Amino acid sequence: MSIGERHRPKAGRPRRVDVARLAGVSPATVSFVLNQTAGQTISDETRQRVLQAVAELNYRPNRAAQGLRQGRSATIGFVSHDVDFGVFAASAIKGAHEVSMRQGNLLLLVNTGGSNRQAAQLIVDLLDRQVDALIFAASGTRSVVLPDAARRVPTILLNCFAPHDPAPAILPDEARGGREATQALLDLEHRDIAYLTGTASMWATKARLRGFREALRGAGLNPREHTVLSGNYHADSGYELVRKLLRRGPRPTAIMCGNDRMAVGALLGLLESGIRVPEDVSVMGYDDQFQLAAEIRPALSTVLLPYDSMGRLAAEQLAAGGPVVQTGRTLVHCPLLMRDSTAAPAGGRPGPSRADHADSPVRSADTPS
């Protein structure tokens, strides 16, 4: 029997003392090597023996024991405050997960179903499991009520905010996104731009509309002279609003839409009216919705909601020992993606559309019955 074999544990999970025995060093030296403890003079030969013993025994440190000693669990609670884990939440989770893994942390995911009571209970449950920090996230940027228990550990609000609360929040820069999308159309020489917005009361709608108007004013245009119609962020809304827009008179050369689903509805309405995109009218979406914006024809020019980057930023700030920004809001840039649904306007102002009075069985929530 070899020396190494005599030092192998007979059964059960290998322990630090087993690694030390196999490597011929003290348990403390094993800890110094594995934790890369600063200020310890350990020869390369000793370090290699320890690492070889770790590999031979398939040794894994006991995270629970480490957590008790260090006062941390290397776990971040991710609270999704929505009915379910949607596409956008998945993107934020992916970004936070990748950073957490790199930092040696794990995410523990829970979903509140949109219930404040459930949120409070789940946060207590996460704290009972010794999470080091919390990410409290929502899709559809909005105000939330942050449960009091969340203040016991570093907590970052993701895509939501708590009014009159100093809790740090990471939000998409929607005003800049609306401004840059409008500016892209202005740069293509569009001067008659209509905006079919999402739900008027929502935070994102207001911010994007503010950016739209800022860009128009920056180009010397009067925002009051540009049509703005409010929808509901669904495709049927985009369809109905574009038909309403066409019935009003000479059509604009470009249409901004509240999101990609509304843009798809607008494309269908324009197509039914014999209007080509982008040859006759350019269409701009928002969100860069997965498996939609880039895959329809024409592919949508749009603005990316940076949930992946926002999730990464939240995890990076928490891994650094707490939020870098202790209070207030951090705005994350929403990149512009120019695709095939936008182009320079054709020469001259187009006349009224051909089929704008056709009836449709689809009715938007904001269309009078």
Characterise this structure.
The protein is built from twelve helices and twelve strands. With 369 residues, it is of the alpha/beta class. Strands 2-1-3-4-5-11 form a six-stranded parallel sheet, sandwiched between helices. A four-stranded parallel sheet has the order 7-6-8-9, with helices on both faces. Helix 11 links the parallel strand 8 and strand 9. Helix 2 packs across helix 3. It is elongated. The termini are far apart. The C terminus is likely disordered.
Notable features of this structure?
alpha/beta; four-stranded parallel beta sheet; 369 residues
Brief rundown of the structure:
The protein has helices at residues 3-6, 16-23, 27-35, 44-57, 63-70, 87-102, 116-128, 174-187, 203-218, 235-247, 260-272, 307-319, and strands at residues 75-80, 106-111, 133-143, 155-161, 169-172, 193-197, 228-230, 254-257, 282-284, 302-303, 329-332, 336-337.
The coarse silhouette is elongated
Give the number of DSSP strands: 12
Helix count, per DSSP? 12
- Report the radius of gyration as a whole number of Å: 28 Å
Structural class: alpha/beta
Low-confidence stretches: 67-71, 348-369
Strand order, main sheet: write it out: 2-1-3-4-5-11
How far from one another are the termini? 89 Å
Which percent bin holds the helix content? 25-40%
Order of helices and strands: HHHHHEHEHEEEHEHEHEHEEHEE
What profile does the largest beta sheet have?
6 strands, parallel
Mean pLDDT: 85
- Percent strand: 15-25%
